[in-house]
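Suppose you are handed a protein chain with no further information: no name, no annotation, nothing but its sequence. What can you learn? This example shows the usual starting point.
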Amino acid sequence: MMKCLIVSGGTIEANDLVNYINAQEVKPYIIGVDGGCQVLYELGIVPNTILGDFDTLDPQVKGYFARQQVPIHQLDPIKDYTDTHAAFEEAKALGANAIDVFGFFGSRLDHSLGALLTAFKYSAQIRIRFYDKHNIVLVVDGAYELTIYKTSKNLKRDFKYLSIIPIEKSYINETRNLKYPLKNAWLFAYDSYGVSNEIIEEQGTIDVQSGRLFVIQSND
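A reasonable first move is to predict its three-dimensional structure. Written in structure tokens, the prediction is:
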């Protein structure tokens, strides 16, 4: 599996990122995106490449990575896509079949929604997951049986809630080990029916037959 780790410019819990990297059996290809490069620099993590218009990055950090011979892709600040979108394109060009994203959520809700929804442009071929302090968001596109662990192996902590948020009409064959089970159930976009379930064992299963949806583990 070719996995890319995108570290973008939103809010990142440093310990989560360190735990994530240490949990990987094979080091992912790391793409630093604009302000996310600052976090990588502070943690002593050298990415495989960095990209962005670098409007929020300290020039000294950019210079440091240049001295480390990290490839730098300078983007025009006047463009029709976000820096994170450009990072998805970079990961696709590399042949990634899995992308994990840190820093997607911050003070800019437009950037957060843009990143989440842009993921569906790639989700038919690439498994995409987003991480922040309170949430793990898995992008599901089409038939997929997934096992979800109450304790995240990557972040080394528990997540209490599990929600299924469809962005289009989606069909769930069955869920197992959830407090509120589903069986042969249609979920519809713009409905909150799938919010705030819980895993009642160490792991739960969601068997999706069709549709596009977010599966979100969360804490208050």
